[in-house]
Specification:
single chain, mainly alpha, 87% helix, membrane, transmembrane helix, transmembrane, cell membrane, AI-2E-like
Amino acid sequence: MNPDRTQSALRTAAWTSAQLLVVLLAVWVGLKLLGSAWSIIWPLVLALLFTTLTEPLARFLRNHGWPATAAAAAVTVTALLIVVGALVLIVVPVAAQSDQLVDGVTQGIQQARDWAAGPPLNIGDDQVTKGVDSAVAKVQSSVNDIINVTLSGVSTIVNGVVTLVLAVFLMFFFLKDGTRFLPWLSQQLPGRLSRDVPIVALRSWTMLGSFVRSQAFVGMLDAVFIGIGLWLVKVPLVLPLSVLTFVAAFVPIVGALFAGFVAVLIALVFNGFTAALIVLGIILLVQQLEGNVFQPMIQSRGLGLHAAVVLLAVTLGGTLAGIVGSLLAVPVAGVVAVLWAYLREELSDPVSEPEMTAEQVAEEDDGEAAPA
């Protein structure tokens, strides 16, 4: 081995490692700053996601002569009405059949007790009573913990409502003044940043819109297929369960689990154990097709990312930040891909045309002179 080349390689590796550590430190500091300002960033992110769904309608209205304020207000009110309508489609049918639901749950509990009383468990009523008494004593001894958890849950709900309200107002302003943002941003930045940053922002916005629309399409596929399965099994409340499945598709992992649990519970209460198993199989099949086929294919096409990258991004985001990380993993990966593609374009050497030899120049001259 050449000692000089070895030392040069080591110095290069050490310098590269030091630069990488500085970059990682900067990323860590940036993430800490984002975490400290999360109460502001999270409504902003939600508003951007809502805006990507509603902006095409606002643009359509502006192109047909509507003032920007009127178009934004109309689209915002329409979006709120759609959300309220979806909630009504879920709540009203469930409330109309609440008596049957309560009776079904009671019968299901009784059936479970009867099954537990038979072989192979052979659990008698006295054992069930002892278990209930033990559970009650445990609950009574944990009253303070339950109160703390309840207050924490109420605080979480209040924070969620405040976040949604703020996101709705931000969505209105994005719809109203969003077209002025990039020109304003270009005027505020110095030098070539006034050109680079707006280009990256526009490409990221296009990518984000593609992601949200693809997520909505995947949710619609889930709702349609699961709704058809519930209808074939003759499970009641098919429409509210389908709407719930579509809405829950925007909350990765937990949303699908919650919607599936509700559908299986309704099937168990109204149709029995066999129907509940069939519904569970249908939901698992659709969820597997969505997670491994539909979602990666649709999002990879819309975002320009390979399906494996989408799967890895969702897994990593869920590991690092739970539900929110799973929700934001794919758009963050898309933004990183957009930024990397732009940097690669700007840092690449321009492709220069090869110089022509003397013979090629002479042949070109002869070719141009031939028609004369």
